[in-house]
DNA sequence: GTCTATAAAGAGATAGAC
DNA sequence: GTCTATCTCTTTATAGAC
């Protein structure tokens, strides 16, 4: 019977190999696309035999789902600092831009999470707890909780003077109990819903609007932009940032329309941001992973022998 | 040397077999998903040998692209009658609803065209000419062309009285030359752009808005709704029609700002879709194809042997 | 725990007989 | 045109030696 330290060392080693497997898998997915992910390739990459992988993961699917949870946690992590933005509309815009930036910066990860198989999406949204507990989720849950109190008040201090608000703000916010442990995959949703409640309280969103519906439609817009960008060769014809900007302005009622509905800067100077428009740069985004862009993932094997 | 009639008969027979191949392929894709489409399965379905398929299609990819072009033409066909709607905002709403309905009614076809491989999307948008020429495209091109003249005037007769319009309407419409033969895949885009120009002329869209950008962002919203609906297990929590309604109202500026509009019954009783929520029903959609819904397409082979 | 070896299945595509 | 037969390659997953 070995001492406790030996057991721990073995456990650490097992965990380490598990991480190496996931690292290799992630690299393959990023470079060649998810379709090219195979047990053999992973085994080759980590210089183990394929059979060893099955001691850590029951199947290729389990590896894929672990990658999904990881990637989703990474996405959530980019939201954390943005949840502190005082103005709810600006907060939502920043979240939207970060969402699109993530999808553009990590196309294959985004594909795997949101465009491949429903079970993968489910693994990411529901199973992000496991991967996210590794550090991200704690911080996020803290932010979400803090948002219920502190962020709300700072937002009021900044915004409340604009319109007749404050009446419904205090009483109705607890409509979203925001149990952070309940479903960590919904953390992003909670951030959005809170911002929407503030927006509504400030009179900048129709009081009759169902915030849950608005949030889903808003999400769909962002997802559509990312997904078309990844799949459709002719999208977008205008710079991506321009399309995102129009979408955000439309959803948040800040568009320079003939009549602004909520509260907007009446008219803008030029036509659009045709001049600058850095387009796909997104230097604001995440520099963690080694440039997932550029390589055609090749869902199809294409020609190999001739 | 055979007579000309014999050559024609042979050509017809060849075409007929080509159609049978595509029919079988379409059925497989609809029932088992695109990933399950293989030359052998097609051959089995039509009771020919796999080698025969290669006399009609150079590769599996070519079959897939033909299916894409077909499906896209089918989608365009559902737009044709809607292009006659006089009010441009209502026309765009109807187009949007038809788009979503198509995606929900033909999930695997939609996936193949817009969510799988960029080359497939390209084949649909650019190569729809070939498949569409079979009858759909002619009608569509006619509608598009007629739209430049007739539909525009009916729209003016119905709408123009609303706001101060008419000044820019006549002079600027030819901004979109609408060459129907040029790129038939863009026919849908042209329909949208025309509606947007009318909207702008009527003062119901900001004069500074770039209609091309608006159109792409609008498309992205619709695509996002369909794509999430097909991939994300928890989307939507509210009935799909409600989400679509909010999106359309937001984009077309018909949202309440205090008063509830067409859809969205102000407040809901429960939290989520616990109570009613028919969700995926959509009986309004197309009944042409044999119920592509319901069966899990299984991108992955999953368990087969044990 | 890790390996070698292999089973079992399936894919796309082609050569050559008829 | 069509078929038989096959080549080549890939995959997931497991059995059993060490």
UniProtKB/TrEMBL annotation, chains A, B:
Residues 38-57 bind DNA. GO terms for molecular function: DNA-binding transcription factor activity; transcription cis-regulatory region binding. Residues 254-306 are annotated as: Disordered. The keyword Chaperone does not apply. The keyword Iron-sulfur does not apply. InterPro entries: Homeodomain-like_sf (IPR009057), HTH-type_TetR-like_transc_reg (IPR050109), HTH_TetR (IPR001647), MT1864/Rv1816-like_C (IPR025996), Tet_transcr_reg_TetR-rel_C_sf (IPR036271). SUPFAM superfamilies: Homeodomain-like (SSF46689), Tetracyclin repressor-like, C-terminal domain (SSF48498). Residues 15-75 form the HTH tetR-type domain. Keywords: DNA-binding, Transcription, Transcription regulation. This is Transcriptional regulator, TetR family. It comes from Paraburkholderia aspalathi.
């Amino acid at each position: 019977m070995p001492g406790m330290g030996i057991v721990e060392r073995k456990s650490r080693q097992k965990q380490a190999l598990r991480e190496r497997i996931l690292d290799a898998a992630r690299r393959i997915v990023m470079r060649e696309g998810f379709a090219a992910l195979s047990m053999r390739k992973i085994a080759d990459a980590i210089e183990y035999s394929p059979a060893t992988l099955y001691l850590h993961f029951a199947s290729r699917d389990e590896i894929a789902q672990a990658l999904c949870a990881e990637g989703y946690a990474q996405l959530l992590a980019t939201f954390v600092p943005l949840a502190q933005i005082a103005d709810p509309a600006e907060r939502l815009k920043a979240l939207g831009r970060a969402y699109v930036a993530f999808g553009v910066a990590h196309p294959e990860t985004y594909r795997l999470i949101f465009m491949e198989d429903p079970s993968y999406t489910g693994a990411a949204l529901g199973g992000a707890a496991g991967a996210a507990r590794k550090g991200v989720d704690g911080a996020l849950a803290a932010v979400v909780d803090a948002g219920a109190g502190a962020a709300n008040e700072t937002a009021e201090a900044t915004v409340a003077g604009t319109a007749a608000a404050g009446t419904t703000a205090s009483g109705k916010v607890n409509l979203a109990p925001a149990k952070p442990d309940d479903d960590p995959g919904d953390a992003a949703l909670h951030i959005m819903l809170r911002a929407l409640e503030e927006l509504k309280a400030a009179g900048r969103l129709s009081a009759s609007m169902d915030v849950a519906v608005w949030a889903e439609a808003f999400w769909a817009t962002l997802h559509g932009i990312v997904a078309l960008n990844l799949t459709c060769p002719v999208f977008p014809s205008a710079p991506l940032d321009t399309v995102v900007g129009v979408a955000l302005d439309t959803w948040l009622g800040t568009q320079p329309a003939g009549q602004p509905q909520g509260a907007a800067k009446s008219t803008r100077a030029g036509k659009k941001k045709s001049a600058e428009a850095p387009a796909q740069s997104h230097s604001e985004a995440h520099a963690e992973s080694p440039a997932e862009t550029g390589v055609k993932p090749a869902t199809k094997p294409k020609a190999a022998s001739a």
